Amino acid sequence: MPIIFTCSICKTRLSALRAGALHVSVDKAMAYPGQLAALYAERSAEYGIPVLSASDLTDGPQLTGWHVRCDEHMPETDTYWIGIDGSETEKWLLLLTAHLCEKEWFSDRLEPVPVLHHEMRAGPA
Ligand SMILES: [Zn+2]
User: Fold this and answer.
1) Which H helix or E strand runs over 71?
2) Which among 4, 61, 90, 95 could disulfide-bond with 35, CB atoms 3.0 to 4.6 Å apart, if both were Cys?
3) Which neighbouring-strand residues pair with 22?
């Protein structure tokens, strides 16, 4: 069953007749590691040990995600986008998100926070 996407600005349903796209802000994605590293350095200096709190992770800088826009409201710059024609499924969205996570500019720039990076890569014990 296709997913129904609506533009987050004008609320128009996207379809083959009303073009649009999923997009991610490249600038926000690329800024995230630096923002997280700055918070990590600030907290580590504050407590004298390498640390981030749970609230830092939930309320601090957040990695950006998909946004839905019709062509009229699509940002002209700073965007990585995939067109939508109304036939997209949950499987398509999952595979697309996995593809996004493979992009170096999106998820492989967490090196400034080595402890967190290690924990995220290692997964649960
Ligand atoms: Zn729109």
Assistant:
1) none
2) 61
3) 68, 82
- For ligand 1, the distance from its centroid to the CA atom of residue 67, given in whole angstroms, is 11
**Model confidence pLDDT, tens digit, residues 19-42:** 899 999 999 888 888 888 899 999
Distance 104 CA to ligand 1 centre (A): 29
Scanning the structure block, which residue is given the tokens 């083959």?
16
State the distance from the centre of ligand 1 to the C-alpha of 34, rounded, in angstroms: 31
Ligand 1 center from residue 14 Cα (angstroms): 9
Using DSSP, state whether 84 is helix, strand or coil. strand
**E strand segments, the chain:** 20-25, 67-70, 79-84
Per-residue pLDDT of 44-91, as tens digits, reads 999 999 888 888 888 988 888 899 999 999 999 989 999 998 889 999
**CA of residue 74 to ligand 1 center, whole Å:** 8
Q: How confident is the model at residue 111 (pLDDT cuts 50, 70, 90)?
A: low
Distance 12 CA to ligand 1 centre (A): 6
Q: How close is the Cα of 69 to the center of ligand 1, in Å? A: 5
